[in-house]
Amino acid sequence: IRTLIFEGPTRLLRRLHVHVSFARTGEGSNPHQDAHDVAVIVLDGTVETTSGRVEAPGIIFHPAGRTHFVRSVGVQPARYIAIEFLQRN
User: Cβ(38)–Cβ(66) under 8 Å?
Assistant: First the structure.
């Protein structure tokens, strides 16, 4: 489940996208690449990503062009904020 927090321009970006996601064990994104940087802040639970497991509280950074995913793997559901730096000025 995704809930949009913000999407629009900032002082330094033409477009920033921020959403919070809730994922039950086994749920998440499939491996993919983005043309932009993505930061993920893990608020609750445990997620698995290309760099391993991250428990809350934790931060993950996926640079543009790198294959990545986020999947809930803990006993409790995961809740995380994704920040996508879509268009730089």
Answer: no
Q: What's this model's pTM, rounded to 2 decimal places?
A: 0.91
Report which secondary-structure segment, H or E, holds 86.
strand 78-88
| pLDDT score recorded for residue 88 | 75
Cα separations in angstroms, 17 against 53, 55, 61: 24, 23, 15
Cα(84)–Cα(75) distance, integer angstroms? 27
Peptide bond into 57 cis (omega under 30): yes
- Dig out the tokens for 36 from the structure: 């932009």
Please compute, for residue 88, the number of CA atoms within 13 A of its CA located in the half-sphere on the CB side.
5
Which DSSP letter does residue 35 get? S
Beta carbons of 42 and 60 less than 8 angstroms apart:
yes
